[in-house]
Amino acid sequence: MNRHVSLPSRAALLAVLVLVACGSGSDDKGSSGGGGNASGASGGLGATGGAGATGGAGGSSSSCLAPSVACGASCVNTNTDAANCGLCGYACAAGESCCTGSCSTGCALSITSLSTTQGPLAGGTWVEIQGTGFADGAKVFFGSSRAPAITVDAQNLRAQTSPHLAGNVDVRVEQGAEKSVRGAAFRYASYGFEGPWEKVGMPAPRAAGGISRLQDGRVLVTGGRQASLVGSQDNSADLYDPSTHKTTAVPGKMGSARIAHGQVTLLSGKVLVVGGFYGATPNAELFDPSSSSFKATAGQPSVPQSTAFPTLLADGRVLVTSLGSMGALTYDPGADAFSAVPGAPLMNQYTPVRLLDGKVLLAGRSASSPVYLYDPETGGFTPGGPSPSAGTGFPSFVNGAFVLPDGRVAAVDGSGSAVVSLFDPKALADGFKPAPYELQESTHSSGVTLMGDGSLFRIAGATVITSQCAAFGWVFSKRVERIDPVGQKVEWFEDLPAAVWNLSAFMLGDGSIIATGGEVCGGAEAHSYLYFLKGRPPPA
Known about the structure:
Blueprint: E1 4-5, H1 10-15, E2 69-71, E3 74-76, E4 90-91, E5 97-99, E6 102-104, E7 110-114, E8 118-120, E9 126-132, E10 139-142, E11 145-147, E12 149-153, E13 156-160, E14 167-175, E15 178-189, E16 192-201, E17 210-213, E18 219-222, E19 237-241, E20 246-249, E21 262-265, E22 271-274, E23 284-288, E24 293-296, E25 308-312, E26 318-322, E27 329-332, E28 337-340, E29 351-354, E30 360-363, E31 370-374, E32 381-386, E33 401-403, E34 409-412, E35 419-423, E36 432-438, E37 447-450, E38 456-465, E39 474-484, E40 489-493, E41 504-507, E42 513-516, E43 529-536
Parallel strand pairs: 8-15
Antiparallel strand pairs: 1-4, 2-3, 5-6, 6-15, 7-9, 9-13, 10-11, 10-14, 12-13, 14-15, 16-43, 17-18, 18-19, 19-20, 21-22, 22-23, 23-24, 25-26, 26-27, 27-28, 29-30, 30-31, 31-32, 33-34, 34-35, 35-36, 37-38, 38-39, 39-40, 41-42, 42-43
């Protein structure tokens, strides 16, 4: 929703130079643009212009008595003034009232504050929204991006930001016919990064293990293989703690040994772990960070999920597809159970990607497979144009498709070609098209992740088949490439300390990167350490 942010008139600007009843009232300007790349790295997705405010909600005039503040030459109460709601110059739309600093259709529903007011362009920031009148089914938007959200109680919502272009954006809650908007309440900024890569020890090797970031900032790494290709699936897990920069073993064990499985952090804070690869069974379990324990879900998948791809939906459920299963499943945390998605086309080897509007793009593994757009609210599937022309390697531990801050989807090939493919949701019938740039090195099973500035990293992988490795004859790479979708270029970044493949990569809340699960020669030498690249948040 676009809001009118009024600019002070020439007369008002002159008036602040003289004493008036509310005092001199120096204007505390709000930010209006996106944060630049603090690391000095070029590119990153640019600013939208945001809903920048022309005046802060806390002017310097000592003559304005609380709760009023100085907005130009006037003293106003930004909690109730519809022309200056929440901050100076932010005007509510017609038919809305200013309720505790948010523009609302009815004051029974309002937003009062956010636990966090800044995050990277890539999204993933956990935000607690405080207010009044929240109920089940509330929808949360950060600017134009819908965020997965859950109602904790009538005064609290929990949301995870989706990607967005840089800038200050409104935070909006919709609840049936009612809505409440807090103007320019969250800033999407470009988070940089800096080398060198660091090696952080792990209690055990975890090639092709699962990885996810918990709501408290720690990283859970589960399962994987420790030695030979098939015979060393593991049921243990480790936790990396950014505050200590150390990794420790989780006391509890998973109920099943897993490799090439999927996992996702739920809005409740628990982690859903599902599927596997060799000898996959139809089981799933939850990791509870409060007790560091795993527990089987009450309702289990109806069929094995060999190489599973779980994706968090905007309503808090999880959509699951896999390489081996023909259909699609949803997991409902409230019921702690799985159910088949009615009307789903054949979904084996399809990877889901949640778009900025909350719908889900499902992309196959060859251009002969059409993409599908799934609407979780209606349950409908709409076919589109071709999937990426090249595959995405082993996507259980190489998630090669990402929604960008501008809404497009980028798919980075992981099957041995140099192709990067792009999809525009506005042109569903066109499907994926090759980007006007390619990778500089063709690889299998690289680690790929979206960065805090909107670019992507393609990390290491296997290159060509030779006699170098006794297990598979693959040569491994330590090269890292940075893909800039806006600048339309690919450039080298600093190499890893060693050549490796089968990495899982993930961005932390401060823009840092974790890459774990690496191995060489098909698992004969799985690595008992992870790679860490330090992020650099922008200046406050």
